[in-house]
Specification:
alpha+beta; 8-stranded antiparallel beta sheet; 421 residues; 7-stranded antiparallel beta sheet; 17% helix
């Protein structure tokens, strides 16, 4: 019963999540074709079942998006990422990443689809995360900042001297008094701005990519093959400092002492640019002054009509078509031998031809590849394909309803997909 109710709710999401419903073409949300993994606060990653995948699709419906998340400490419950292993659009997101959290005992999910961010208040969690809420990690809603203590300066300098990479090891040097620490907020991003007489460069640190409570940053130099460069070195636990943030024009011949900002607040105001430090360097015989600043950006939450339109435009353009000999359920690789992926032009034709198909009471004999599945956004639909002479039929695999392609579409279909079989 519960699974039926979830499915019934999913059917109404077809417009918002890029699904269409036109006669033969009745694309519906298809959690069965997704794989899902949840990252938990303890660092563990777990597979989530289909029932949870369906629930997450429902919880991230954009028409429930709120304008603002209440202020206060946020307790992170977990982040779920879904993917479609059957499609070959590996660089495209087909579903928002869902991050679950609580604020003052109310539960929320923040959904992220590339640059689109929105949040909804929820009443229930996916079953996979139910036990996590009792051990959830707290995060402030805005970042906190502090300069390092003297003993931490010394530790930074020592860590920077450790060999990193392959021999011959680069010679790294940390500028001790430039070290500071950030208590990471729940979401958003940090922007480091490097400004000199030569150029202006910006580097971004996404908060969600770390999902660690602290981040330490310090200025340093690195010499390798007689080439000297400067950079910001970061660490999540004050060890190693292997993560490097380096602007494009970082090659120098000499660096002079850096000056840190005399005072910085303990809490960073979103959108405000804070100077961190400045230093002078020599390059091509000329002295240059470099200023480094830090800005924290809160995520911009979309809602209402703007959100719905952006989600629909994003996902409705993500389409894929697969012919197959066997059922797709349980298939974990797009390279399975019984799958035939079609190109962009053929895909557009198949969508259009099935849209134009007319209902009929009949079907033909099964085609050599008897099934075709259409994907669009988070939605999918499978048809049985059959022939009767020059006529082409597609049958809704779930309902059994038959549809006959127009004659000109049938001829093109047969020429495209059956001439060489």
């Amino acid at each position: 019963m519960k699974k039926y109710l979830i499915f019934s709710t999913l059917v109404i999401l077809f417009f918002l999540f890029g699904c269409e419903e036109e006669r033969a073409l009745r694309l519906q949300p298809a959690p069965e074709y997704y794989q899902g993994r949840a990252l938990l606060p303890n660092g563990q990653q777990i597979e989530i079942p289909e029932s949870d995948r369906a629930a997450i699709i429902e919880l991230c419906q954009p028409d429930n998006a709120i304008q603002k998340i209440p202020s206060g400490e946020r307790r992170w419950l977990g982040t779920v990422t879904l993917n479609q292993p059957l499609t070959d659009a590996a660089t495209e997101s087909t579903f928002p990443t869902a991050t679950f959290f609580t604020v003052e005992n109310k539960s929320y999910v923040q959904c992220q689809l590339d640059s689109i961010t929105y949040a909804t208040e929820i009443n229930t969690l996916p079953e996979s995360l139910n036990d996590v809420q009792y051990t959830a990690e707290p995060y402030p809603d805005v970042p906190k900042f502090r300069f390092a203590e003297p003993h931490e300066y010394e530790h930074f300098a020592q860590e920077m001297k450790k060999p990193i990479g392959n021999e011959p090891y680069p010679e790294r040097k940390g500028i001790e008094h430039t070290l500071f620490h950030i208590t990471m907020p729940f979401s958003g991003e940090f922007e480091l701005t490097f400004t000199s007489s030569e150029n202006k460069d910006r580097l971004v640190i996404p908060v969600e990519s770390t999902r660690h409570p602290y981040l330490s940053l310090g200025l340093g130099t690195e010499k390798s093959d007689e080439v000297l460069q400067y950079a910001i070195y970061t660490s999540r636990d004050q060890n190693d400092y292997q993560e490097v943030l380096r602007p494009k024009a970082a090659h120098i011949s000499q660096m002079f002492g850096a000056k840190t900002a005399p005072q910085l607040p303990s809490v960073l105001v979103p959108g405000h640019e804070y100077p961190l430090y400045s230093f002078t360097f020599m390059k091509n015989g000329t002295a240059h002054r470099q200023n480094v600043s830090l800005t924290y950006h809160e995520p911009k939450l979309l809602y209402g009509k703007e959100l719905s339109e952006q989600i629909h435009d994003k996902l409705s353009s993500q389409r894929h078509v697969i012919f197959h000999d066997l059922a797709l359920l349980g298939t974990e690789s797009k390279d399975a031998s019984f799958l035939q992926h079609v190109g962009q032009n053929e895909m557009d034709f198949i969508f259009d031809a099935i849209k134009r198909a007319n209902a009929t009471a009949y079907a033909g004999e099964p085609a050599p590849r008897p099934y075709v599945t259409l994907f669009q956004g988070i939605c999918a639909q499978t048809f049985d394909v059959s022939y009767d002479g020059v006529d082409v039929y597609v049958t809704n695999s779930k309902t059994g309803a038959h549809f006959k392609l127009l004659r000109e579409d049938a001829i093109k279909w047969y020429n495209l997909f059956e001439q060489n079989t």
